[in-house]
Amino acid sequence: MGQDIAGIILAGGRSRRMGGGDKSLLALGGDSLLDHVASRFAPQVGPLALSANGDPARFAGIELPVLADVVEGFAGPLAGILTALEWAAADTSCEALATAAGDTPFLPRDLVERLVAAAGARPGSIAVACSGGKWHPTFALWPTEARAALRRFLVDEDIRRVSAFIERHGFVEVEFSLLKSGEHEIDPFFNINTPDDLAAAERLLQSIDP
Ligand SMILES: Nc1nc2c(ncn2[C@@H]2O[C@H](COP(=O)(O)OP(=O)(O)OP(=O)(O)O)[C@@H](O)[C@H]2O)c(=O)[nH]1
User: Fold this and answer.
1) Which of 70, 76, 160, 170 is the most exposed place for a label (fewest CB within 10 A)?
2) What are the contacts of 12-21 at 24+ separation with CB within 8 A?
């Protein structure tokens, strides 16, 4: 599925709320967070890479190409997205890139399929995932032709907000349902920012296979 769509897992942040380091390498249920994300996301795309700053050796156990941000200084997820769009255009034959954050272990298994369908109805636009009426701008489908405009936005204008670029470019929203777990509802875009979030994800993992 999605062989003509390139994919990137964003794992280049500083994880300050987690106390630093690489939160995507933290263990969840015996595997790394990144393993959880990759096992859901990899089957949905063709060429897949990991977006990460710093020494790629720490991801040596992960069999993915590691792309260092083309913009220095931890410019945020938009820097990873720009890097990945330039990689997709230069090194793959894909005309679109799907993005996923490496701290979101329960991401939808039909994420890319639904983003592609929505983008098809509005060619050239960015398809962005939502749940519960809230945007998840790091979960989106981006046309590679947006890369020049994104470079100008991030480098020349120095604007870092992902949602600001999506709004400027033009977008279509794709709403994803909350997952049921007994009496509870779980957001498939629940992401791990703090040690408490990680503990909550451990509990969710015991109770559901969302
Ligand atoms: N490539 C790249 N990815 C980033 C960067 N900053 C954040 N990300 C990724 O974007 C996603 C959302 O990041 P956040 O959780 O908001 O930021 P974070 O730096 O990881 O964590 P905090 O420092 O606690 O805010 C995560 O998957 C991060 O790894 C960056 O500068 N470059």
Assistant:
1) 170
2) 12/51, 12/52, 12/53, 12/68, 12/69, 12/74, 12/77, 12/79, 12/80, 13/74, 13/76, 13/77, 13/103, 14/74, 17/193, 17/194, 18/192, 18/193, 18/194, 18/195, 18/198, 19/195
105 in Cβ contact with 201 (< 8 Å): yes
Q: How many residues does the chain have?
A: 210
Q: Report residues whose beta carbon is within 6 angstroms of any ligand 1 atom.
A: 10-17, 51, 53, 69, 74-77, 79-80, 101-103, 138, 193
Q: What is the pLDDT of residues 134-193, one digit of tens each?
A: 999 999 999 999 999 999 999 999 999 999 999 999 999 999 999 877 777 889 999 999
Nearest atom, ligand 1, residue 23 CA:
20
196 assigned to a ligand binding site: no
